[in-house]
Amino acid sequence: MAAAVARAVRELPGFQRLMHQTGGVHAAAWCAFDGAVRTVREDVGRHNALDKLIGHLALEVGVNALRDGFVLMSSRASYELVRKAARMGIPMLAAISAPSTLAIDLAQQAGMALLGFCRQGGCVQYAAGQAEARSSTGIDFDVGVPAPSATLSSGTSGLVSG
Fold first, then answer.
1. Which CATH number fits domain 2-161: 3.50.50.60, 3.40.140.10, 3.40.50.720, 1.10.760.10?
2. pLDDT tens per residue across span 67-124
3. Under 8 Å between Cβ of 30 and 39
4. What is the DSSP code string of 83-100?
5. What percent of the chain has pLDDT over 90?
6. Backbone angles phi and psi of 117, in degrees to 5
7. Sheet with 113-119: strands ordered across
8. By C-alpha distance, which of 2, 6, 1 is closest to 137?
9. Is 90 exceeded by the pLDDT of residue 50?
10. Percent helix, strand and coil across the chain, each rounded to 5?
11. Taking the chain, what is the end-to-end CA distance rounded to the nearest angstrom?
């Protein structure tokens, strides 16, 4: 999982055309479970960027396909983003910045994986997903919820302190 998120974080800037032009928009990226960025939608509002992405995916590939990947946000993870993703059956939301406490609570209640501070050095997992996601995707989301100081290193499959 850490390697997939690291790959998505590396690839995201290449898809952010508006960000490069303006320096002030958020991106919502749809990523395959290997971390390949498939499509990105941008907007000045992070909520709007996610709405655009979900709408595009629903129209182009169908809502059932939303279980076959994860979302990477170029923002913090608010509870509204988690709620939208959970309602659509998206198994994981990763963000480059921090999640709110309510976002963590909602992700845990929804059985959704939630990762924050996803950057080149790793990420922090705040909520683990359900076993159904693990069995259908091959990715083990059920690794527990680490303390905020624990990070997932892209070089290992487990938690690394730091």
1. 3.40.140.10
2. 889 999 999 999 999 999 999 999 999 999 999 999 999 999 999 999 999 998 889 9
3. yes
4. HHHHHTT--EEEESSPBP
5. 63
6. 50, 40
7. 37-43, 26-31, 70-73, 92-95, 113-119, 122-127, 150-152, 159-161
8. 1
9. yes
10. 40, 25, 35
11. 18
Residue 29 and residue 15: Cα distance in Å, rounded?
A: 9
Residue with tokens 């690394």: 160
**DSSP secondary structure code for residue 155 in this structure:** T
- Is residue 162 over pLDDT 90? no
Q: Give the Cα separation of 11 and 147 in Å (integer).
A: 28
Domain boundaries, the chain: 2-161
Helices (H), 62-139: 79-87, 101-110, 131-137
Contact indicator for 90, 67 with CB cutoff of 8 Å: yes
CA distance 34 to 69: 9
Residue 18 CA: distances (Å) to CA of 10, 83, 102, 112: 17, 26, 30, 29
**Residue 150: pLDDT band by 50, 70, 90 thresholds?**
very low
